[in-house]
Specification:
single chain, 448 residues, alpha+beta, Beta-Lactamase, Helix Hairpins, 3 domains, five-stranded mixed sheet, four-stranded antiparallel sheet, 9 helices, 55% helix, binds adenosine-5'-diphosphate, histidine kinase
Length: 448
């Protein structure tokens, strides 16, 4: 509010000062031009009158006096001895004689004079002096004019202050109300209540953008919070039951209740491996998501990386009678980290393998589309529900808890893939139909 008033006062003060300066400057300039014009008229009148007979008669002198009074100037005529022979401010009488009784210096202190020589037949016969008031703006009318303008400024100054006060009260109410609402929302969020963050209505674009960002922040925090809760649930569930099994089995073996058969020990070993994988996956995710993931970027032929990974999967796919098709004719080059690319392909193929039933099919295709390398991993597997598709790349997201638990995943593989594709400046998308199969498509920018 103080700002509004301050700006209005400043504006009016600046305008007042500038216009006063402007008026004085241009007014003086204008008046001086006017003076020069009227001087010229007097000079040419005198010259013209002299030209005819070498002197100024009474009629001409009285015209000169009249003009001087009319133009508010003093006109003096001197002869060649510098004697005053005519003074427009004096009575007619003084012009009849030679004027020798007059003081040489009769100049008025408050006037400035300009002298012109008067010629007759190429000889100087006297001098014409025209005096103007020193202060150009000295007339009451001029000063009244400036005063009136300043009064107008003072009035507008007061109006501006009143308008500024009214506007600032209105505006600050309109501005502060949503900001207070936003502040309350942030307090709400700070206390950990991410839901129910109210939508703030405002016409101010910036405040609206702020309110929307805060709402989005609350939504994301809420999502993260849900994921975190889900993660702790999942991890404790994933770890608690196998550890309980391990513990009871080992205690039973130690107590001599159970025989330490090879089959029993092998099951316990599998559980330990599964838990180790979960811990490793979590560890890997933390590394991949960290800002300074070490990368060794180089020119890579995608085919050279993809083919050996596919070769490694052949025995696994065979064990489930899954047919693995590959269509990798295009020799495409990108900038990438070989090990990280292998990790991307391995995770996607592991999913294709895990979520495809026995006797199914998996296709891997590499081709060029515009200036991108496209790699498609397609399977005839169990598919993903349409409403779950937006979440599959989120950390710890498993489209179906019970199903994933059976397959042993913790919902980390695709988050790692997404992060790694991102550091390669690529993009990954998914398309899927429940019970029909899924297609994961990666695009990487090609290099020449
Ligand atoms: P997980 O270790 O559980 O497989 P991912 O992050 O790799 O974790 O995948 C997340 C979820 O996405 C999986 O739990 C699964 O439900 C679904 N999903 C991933 N790939 C496929 C696929 N090829 N077919 C069907 N569902 C898939």
């Amino acid at each position: 509010m103080r700002n509004y008033i301050g700006i209005s006062i400043m504006t009016v003060v600046v305008i007042t000062v500038l216009s006063n300066i402007g008026i004085r400057y241009y007014f003086i300039d204008y008046i001086q031009k006017q003076y020069a014009k009227s001087d010229k008229e007097i000079i040419s009148y005198v010259n013209n009158s002299i030209e005819t007979d070498g002197l100024l008669d009474q009629r001409e002198l009285s015209y000169l006096r009249q003009q001087a009074r009319f133009k508010n100037v003093e006109v003096l005529l001197r002869d060649t001895d510098q004697e005053i022979i005519f003074n427009s401010s004096m009575g007619m009488g003084m012009n009849s004689g030679k004027g020798h009784h007059m003081a040489r210096n009769i100049y008025r202190d408050d006037y400035t004079y300009a002298t012109q020589s008067i010629f007759y037949e190429d000889e100087v016969i006297g001098y014409l002096e025209i005096g103007h008031s020193k202060s150009v703006i000295d007339s009451k009318a001029d000063n009244d004019f400036i005063y009136a303008i300043n009064v107008l400024y003072a009035v507008s100054f007061m109006i501006a202050v009143i308008v500024a006060v009214i506007l600032s009260i209105l505006f600050s109410k309109r501005l502060t109300r949503p900001i207070i609402a936003i502040k309350n929302s942030t307090h709400h969020i700070a206390k950990g209540h991410y839901d129910n963050v109210k939508h703030v209505h405002t016409d101010t674009l910036e405040v609206h953008a702020l309110a929307t960002s805060i709402q989005e922040l609350a939504r994301q925090l809420n999502e993260q919070e849900q994921l975190r809760k889900r993660l702790s649930n999942d991890i404790s569930h994933e770890l608690r039951s196998p550890i309980a099994v391990l513990r009871s089995q080992i205690e039973a073996i130690m107590d001599g209740v159970l025989e330490p058969t090879h089959e029993r020990l092998s099951k316990l070993h599998d559980e330990i491996l599964r838990m180790t994988k979960l811990i490793n996956d979590l560890n890997e995710l933390v590394v991949v998501e960290s800002e300074n993931l070490p990368l060794h970027m180089e020119r890579v032929h995608i085919k050279d990386i993809l083919n050996p990974v596919l070769d490694n999967f052949v025995p696994l796919m065979d064990s489930k009678q899954i047919t693995l098709h590959r269509d990798l004719d295009s020799p495409l080059t990108i900038m990438g980290d070989k090990d990280r690319l292998k990790q991307i392909f391995t995770n996607l193929l592991t999913n294709a393998y895990k979520y495809t039933n026995e006797g199914g099919q998996v296709w891997v295709q590499l081709c060029q589309e515009n200036d991108k390398a496209m790699i498609r991993f397609k399977d005839s597997g169990i598919g993903i529900k349409e409403e779950e598709l937006p979440y599959v790349f989120q950390r710890f997201y498993r489209s179906d808890d019970s199903r994933s638990r059976k397959t042993g995943g913790a919902g980390i593989g695709l988050s790692i893939v997404k992060e790694l594709v991102k550091v390669h400046e690529g993009m990954i998308t998914v398309d899927s139909q429940l019970k029909k199969g899924s297609v994961f498509t990666i695009q990487f920018p090609l290099i020449k």
